[in-house]
Amino acid sequence: MNHLLRAWVALLFAGLSVLTASPVSAQDDSWKLEPDARIEVSVLSAQTTTRDEDLVIDGEAINLRGQVGVALEKGDTRFRIEADRIEVIRIGEGRNNIARDRFTATFETPVGKDFDLRLMARHYDDVVTVEAADTDEWQGAARITFEPRREHRVRIEGSWRERDYANGPLAETSGEGPRVDAQYRRRFGRYHYLQFDLRAESIESDDPRRGYERESAGVAYTRPITPDLRVRPALEVIKTRFDGRLAPEGQLRRDRLVVPEVELLWWPGQWRIEAEAKYIFFDSNEPVREREGYRLTLSVGYAF
Fold first, then answer.
1. For residues 135 and 292, what is the distance between their CA atoms, to the nearest angstrom?
2. Bigger pLDDT: 165 or 7?
3. Comparing C-alpha atoms, which of 164, 160, 158, 258 is closest to residue 210?
4. Most C-beta atoms within 10 A of its C-beta, which of 116, 148, 203, 206?
């Protein structure tokens, strides 16, 4: 399967290169090559305590993100490749900085009057996942969108992930597994939505620390305040079951995460200014992991 994902990535990149250089593309004025870029700076403040009110996390961080991409478009058909780099500067003693790279290739096209198809190949380098703090991932996904009217949109997506874990002085291990996403969005007007999301995923691994199963459900309501400003309250619930991690009484570890949040989005022109406040409730049958706290984020970005 790993070879298939790499082949998918190569196919998407090769397809874009061929179309870019194709004489047909040169002769057909409807093909458009659209480069783009984005920069973003985020400031994050978080505090988390255990149920006994012992401080676990109390710190700030600065996130620096850069993205470059190029798309080849003709009507509603689109090829796109992009690269992201995120640098996280953690403020405080004993907190290490981290970085993450992401490379993505996508192909989107209508497949009928009310249906659209998207294929995606993606690679993450040094990303933090639920089961490990240093993960490399190859991902392939197919998504179908059904939108009979602008008021109603349904999306179903299936993904396959293959992951390699860095384990410090120990040998690297790996895991793989599927993810399925379902989404329904009700549109009331411009930037005025009610959206429901469901997700089920799993990772299987010979490393007993890495395998897990997870389900999540979320709801979000977006309402415009002005043409450039909107507010977005949301709620997400995530349940995780680990395959090889044990709680104190010998049972397998089970976690539940509940996250209410509210977000303000101000997008004047090409600027992207977003403020987000989350409160995190984390329950587990491993009592030392039970905790709660807040996370505040302010992001300022510019899309070229």
1. 25
2. 165
3. 164
4. 203
pTM of the model: 0.84
Return the number of other C-beta atoms located less than 10 Å from residue 24's C-beta. Answer: 8
Q: How far is CA 266 from CA 185, 188, 300, 303, in A?
A: 21, 19, 10, 13
| Res 24: pLDDT | 43
pLDDT band per the 50, 70, 90 thresholds, residue 9: low
Beta bridge partners of 64: 41, 87
- pLDDT for 242-269, tens place per residue? 998 888 877 889 999 999 999 999 999 9
